[in-house]
Amino acid sequence: MACLMRTLKLVENLSKGNQLLIRQSTRTMAGWNKDYKPGVFPKTDEERAIAAKKYNLLPEEYKPYADNGLGYGDYPELPGGLGVEARDPYYPYDYPELKRNFGETIHADYDLYSEDRWSQPSQPRYSNSAYWLSFLGVMAGCFILFYWLEDYKMYRPVAAKQYPGEGRVHYTFEKE
Question: How far does the signal peptide extend, from start to end residue (predicted)?
Fold first, then answer.
């Protein structure tokens, strides 16, 4: 508690002598998460029109998420499923590293559709059943080969170990 009081006292002393510090700290508070929270779920047509204008959409295009307690509020339900890599790489975006334009409404699950995440911009080449059949075919082939070749063990060819015996000369150091 004493440390907290000393810190507050230090901040008070710094703020008396430096008004620029107070202004700068006030400016940095503008980007809090509370500023980006969605509003209350729109119930009337007027509220829907205001929310559509807030998200740069036409009132006909604006459809909010269902009010089921997940906290989306008035945020629009945008069609999803296409990731960022499906967008045109040669378009002059305002933020080219994100492939976005200023003021563009993004999906509520935008973190799932960024370029460093999985996305499926087009249909897979084969169906899931074809993938499963090829997987099971390869695995069955491996098991068949394993059991078929189980009886044919392969070893390194090695002669029998030679041990010296009584009365037998295996080596000599004499010249011939």
Answer: none
CA distances from 135 to 50, 63, 80, 126 (A): 53, 42, 30, 13
Find residue 9's DSSP bridge partners: none
Alpha-carbon separation of residue 25 from 4, 11, 14, 32, 41 (angstroms):
19, 11, 12, 12, 32
CB 72 within 8 A of CB 108: yes
Structural domain boundaries of the chain?
123-150
- Amino acid code (one letter) for 42: P
Compute φ and ψ for 12, nearest 5 degrees. Answer: -65, -45
User: Residue 62 pLDDT > 70, yes or no?
Assistant: yes
What is the value of pTM for the model shown?
0.49
Q: Nearest Cα to 40, choosing from 30, 29, 54?
A: 54
